[in-house]
Amino acid sequence: IPGLTGLAQVNGRNITEWKDRINYDIQYQKNITFFQDLKIIIKSIYIVLFFKGINKYKKNIMNKFQG
């Protein structure tokens, strides 16, 4: 399901810089496969269940996108 999760989301969530998030999106677009989507979904479940890749302390949260 588009928008539910993605390569950038499973590689750092809110601690990833915008340039890296955009690069993950480009990488995903160049290599769209069923197995990559399956891997992203499985990794998403793991990350959500174990709170991985998120800054819980409101410090150094990802900057707003400046375009």
Task: Please tell me about this protein's structure.
The chain is mainly alpha-helical and 67 residues long. The chain has 2 helices and no strands. The N and C termini lie far apart (26 Å). The mean pLDDT is 80.
Number of strands: 0
- Radius of gyration (Å): 12 Å
Instruction: Classify the helix fraction into a percent range.
Output: 40-55%
The SSE string, one letter per element, is HH
Backbone structural class: mainly alpha
Largest sheet: none
Distance between the termini: 26 Å
Q: What proportion strand?
A: under 5%
Q: Assembly state here?
A: single chain
Mean pLDDT across the residues is 80
Unreliable parts: none
- Rough shape? flat
Individual helix count: 2
Summarize this, please?
With 67 residues, this protein is mainly alpha-helical. It has helices at 18-30, 34-50.
Main attributes of the structure:
single chain; 67 residues; mainly alpha; 45% helix; flat
Question: Helices and strands in order, then pairings?
Answer:
Layout: H1 18-30, H2 34-50
